[in-house]
Amino acid sequence: MKDHGRNKHSMKRVDDNQLFQAVRLQTWFRDGKERYWVVDESRQAEGMQATHQLIRDVGEQSSDDVSEEEQASNQEGDAEDQIIRDIEQWKEAAQERRLTLLAKPAADELDPWLRYTGWNEVLQESQVDIIQTYKYAREPEEKETKLQRLLRAWDRILERCLDTLANMDHKDVLKWWASPKNEVASQHPFELHQSVQSVHKCSAVWQRFICYMMRTATVDWEDDTETGVEFTHAQWQSIQQIHTHLQTEPNNEDDQDPLLTAELMRLCMLVVMQDTSKIGLYESPLMHYLAVRGIDPLTKSLYPPLAYTPILGRVLWITRLLMLEIAVPLEPWPELRLQSKEDIESIPERIHKLRRTHLCEGSFSPTSSILSQLAMGKKYNQLHESPANIHWSRDEQTIYYLGMGVELEKVREMCHDLIGLLQRLLYNLAFDSELPMVDLSQIVDSMAWNTKFRQSEYSFINHVKNRERTDVGYQYLLKRARKGSKEWQLLQRAGDGSYKWNDSQKQAYLNQERQFLRKLMVTLHVTGGQPARGPEIGSIKVSNSVYSARNIYVINGQMCFLTMYDKARKRRGNTDYIVRFLPNEVSQVLAQYLIYIRPFGRALDQRESEYLFGDNRGPWAGEELTQALSKATSKGLGVRLTVQSWRHVAIGIAVRHLLRASKTWEKDDEEDEGEFAEGDDEEELEQNTFRHIMVRQSGHGQRVAQAHYAVDGAFLHRLGPELITAYEQASVAWHELLGLAQAEGKGKHGRQASQQLTPVGIKRERRESKHGVKAKALDGLRRIYGPQAQPRSEGQAAALQLVHQPPVTSIIVLPTSSGKSVLFFSVAAMAVDQTVIVVVPFTALVEDIVARGQAAGLHCKEWSYSNHYSSQELVQLLVVSADQAVSGQFLHKAKGYELNGQLAHMFFDECHVAFTDTSYRERLRELWKLRYLKCPFTALTATLMVELDDVLRDRLLIEDAVLLRWSTARPTIRYQVQDSKEEAASAVGLRLLERLLYLPDGKRGVVYVRSYATGDLISSALECSFYKARADDKGETLQKWAQGSGGWIVATGALGTGINIPGIIYVVHIDRPYGLTSFAQQSGRGGREGEG
């Protein structure tokens, strides 16, 4: 249409309203048979006006009948309403303005990092706020099939790039390629990351960049983009060509899309090879995208460098990988005129030409800009810590990581249980008989790396002095296998007297061996000292390989394992050997397995790998360890810990109970001028042996350990218990000087002293009136609704009594509109210096509860990532959405309330979502984490079928919860079902709605639909709003309908839970509801004020 306007009517650079006229279209057809006609809205408006006039003539009171006093009162009320509306409009506008960045904010608004990046200047050019801008860089949604197809083309490009990298065996080329300097090569070659997951993360960042370009590019190159990103004409043409390819089906049956893949590679070339010498920093699409990725959608703010530099690092790796493919591809790109490596005349000349122009600092390229920001970000990173994530109990016997309590005694019990389980599994694998003990004190071993000990397949088992004790081979268990046992019959005897394997028994035996190895993996990880990372454990080799030495040794009668992995090993180029010794019982189990079981197991499935933990696919990485560790900690500790969370917990325990106990000294802190990376503290004082070993076992440096692992939330920034003690000692010396020395025995040390700075825990008050719990419940109700308030039903009265004398866990089932919110409102009203937490499933419900709580006079707030208020501030009622309630940040904050005696009660409203909505809201699967908080826990719902009671208890870990179930029947609701038979459900529904269309003033109706298409059709026919979960203006849509004079609204199931809006007299479902629970919730929106 724009092309027609320009070519035929000379209408260039005109506004859309001069080219187009907005009209309302209507159709009754679908499925490719659409025929539209224009609706004459003027006639419709006249008809509606006449209808409304008729209603007023019949039903409205004449103004002559209203007294002067009533008119004055109404005018005064209208004036107050207008004031409220003005304030609310200002608040909404202020919220929108907050998300729109200023080009030049106040000087104190920007920290040095944001002044350096200048993000505010580029992001303020976007036509939408920062959250909407960020959404342009989101991953493809399910309906964005063309983008998904395009990303499959990117996967093919990435695969070719990785093949080229793998085939580049000339280290000099890769050293030059990794160097940001034009003059010197790097000492470390450009290569693959140490883990496959890192490659996937790098690819994911580039995938989102591709999506960003495709979503933002305009149809006309001269038009401004929504976000302000700019493209060169060649880049824009390539994007348009990609759109053209996506409009056609791929020609190849194997869906390789060669033309699409080549065009996407061309676009990537145009981006990474762009000359930025004559443009601004963010006029490069890649740099503009990186500015957008600086937006933190959770906090609705901008990322600090600590969170942003990993994104830069991943994009830098991808740009180098793409440039290597451009420079020396393994296979040619004829469409792009790129020769293969074999056809290039001079590889060094091409390498140096391209890297000087596109990859080095000062090369006027996107990569040069990335290098500059990365260097500055790393510099700022040295000045910042990670957020606090641990608390300690007062007796220092329980550490809380992100709200999850880990008791030291349970850790000890878990270790004993793991060892006992290993011994039982070992007994079973030995065909239900004991294995000979291994006298480790007599085992000879050496870490020497000479010819004798460097032989492939060599281990301590093969040492000449150990062979009589250790070199038994697979024959030892093969003899037992021939005899069999009660459980195992691995061999079957044939008629000719020969033996053959029983395949099912053989597989069962190997499965049990893998179970043993998973438990052994966890045991080594937990008992070996400060925990390694997942790849470290997976790298343990029993014997030498062709490439490297083994990792298991026997030293001084103890088994130990040695690892060489740490996070910065490849970048620094040197190797730190980390040794972890095993307890005696674990040493014995490992030695017996290696000597007796492993040789037989290897012969059984003919595996040739030297790795202790692995299979035919290779060594086990972090995923296997995380799964095994999660199961073990869930059973033994009552909390599910991953490899990362256990590292924090173990480091916190070591700092608290081991490092403090050691008599060591530390050198004064010296400013580190190097890059920020774990393991960089090369000059740590070696005399501080104990601390040095504890830190080294954790695979990082001392500075990183203090700044980023197990950061104690009980103290202010960098003010730990050791420093508190030092301050205390200085104060005592001053007191002694003034003759004010404290009495002997009054001094405190470590955390004891620091506890004097924290609020004293306030015990949960259980104020009992003379009439007992019933009077207390009534008191709480009347504090909310006035001195004459009474429970509206017997069910509500029983529930009030239960929550005011709560058991540890409880489930309350009351019908919709029965006033379940009164329960937590009344408990909050009675709380003294304590907080009640309410977890709800939907944002709209959060806002509704906060508004009603504040209207009831409670100090009530919403918790969100972007609304962190001080932990010292106490509110009576804290409302949080379910997605955020399971986050580490919230659980850490709530655990702080609990430990200070400030957490009175936790309610989970509409708890049925714990099993109804988990299929599409993954965070709801983690709701069991709420049970880490030790306070009364009450789950509320109106729709819990008896058959699903056990499911809810299992999902929330409340197996022993007290159940209060009241009849959920609603006598004010009548139900009617119409079978659409062969006709479309929407057509039948529209005929029904024609009879119900005109509602009395102040009354409302809801139409529930299952698809957006049906919703658009119905809302268009009714001329009403359509409320849908993914709409950006859904909150405004709901508020406008709820606060208006009545009428219809069309909605998806997102409006079906917990929303309390009076005046709803009709609830219509088009098509079958998703389930009985959803239907009960949705139909329960009606008749909430007793309407029939």
From TrEMBL:
GO molecular function, one term: nucleic acid binding
Enzyme class: isomerase
Nucleotide-binding keyword on record: yes
One Pfam family hit: DEAD
Domain annotation Helicase ATP-binding: ranges: 801-962
Biased composition range(s): Acidic residues: 62-81
Biological processes per GO annotation: double-strand break repair via homologous recombination
Keyword Thylakoid (UniProt): no
Annotated EC: 5.6.2.4
Alphabetized UniProt keyword annotations: ATP-binding, Nucleotide-binding
Superkingdom in the source lineage: Eukaryota
Domain Helicase C-terminal per the UniProt entry, residue ranges: 991-1092
Region (Disordered): 58-82
Catalyzed chemical reaction(s): Couples ATP hydrolysis with the unwinding of duplex DNA by translocating in the 3'-5' direction
Residues in coiled coil: none
PANTHER family: DNA HELICASE RECQ FAMILY MEMBER, RECQ HELICASE, PUTATIVE (AFU_ORTHOLOGUE AFUA_6G14720)-RELATED
Family (UniProt): Belongs to the helicase family. RecQ subfamily.
Designated name of the protein: DNA 3'-5' helicase
Species lineage: Eukaryota, Fungi, Dikarya, Ascomycota, Pezizomycotina
